[in-house]
Design brief:
- Keywords: Membrane, Transmembrane, Transmembrane helix.
- This is DUF2975 domain-containing protein.
- It comes from Autumnicola edwardsiae.
- The chain crosses the membrane at residues 12-37, 57-78, 99-120, 132-151.
- InterPro entries: DUF2975.
- The chain is built from four helices and two strands.
- It is mainly alpha-helical and 168 residues long.
- The protein folds into two domains: 1-88; 89-168.
- It has a two-stranded antiparallel sheet.
- A hairpin with a 2-residue loop joins strand 1 and strand 2.
- The radius of gyration is 21 Å and the shape is elongated.
- The protein starts with a helix and ends with a helix.
- The mean pLDDT is 86.
Length: 168
Amino acid sequence: MNASKILTGILNISYILLIFGWSTLFIFLIYTISGGGIEYPLNNFSQNLIVHSKNDLITTIIYFLFKYGFMIYLVYLVRKLVDNLITGPLFTRYQVAGFNLIGQLIIWFIVINALAEFILKMALKARIEVVASFPDFWLFVALGAFFIFLGKIFRDAEKLKEENDLTI
């Protein structure tokens, strides 16, 4: 089986699962806002978060909706870029811009997510708690930097391709 088909399949499955997860959370938010019969505290709603009230639950769900929405957008962009790499010519401006955008969004996502989790834990637990998950944080920062680096490589290759086309 071709590696590009495997990658495309994985991205499509991830995209569908993220949309399903987002839809489920949205339905749960509507259920919660409409006064669904939920008993508090919810100890296992989210990792390290104990939800004590309806407002806490709504805040947490909205946080996860934004998080999953951003991840859906990111996977959508990666799908479009991979499709362009497979079907179109290589070393185009679209691909350069796509790699740079995806890299920057990954870095922004991980930084904003870390800050949002810190603020959410501070608000829900009413105390400041710093949990160091540096391997995950730095792994995603490195992944974002790698995409930006690929964008620069593709930009240089695009220039070489243009020069080569002019020479012929």
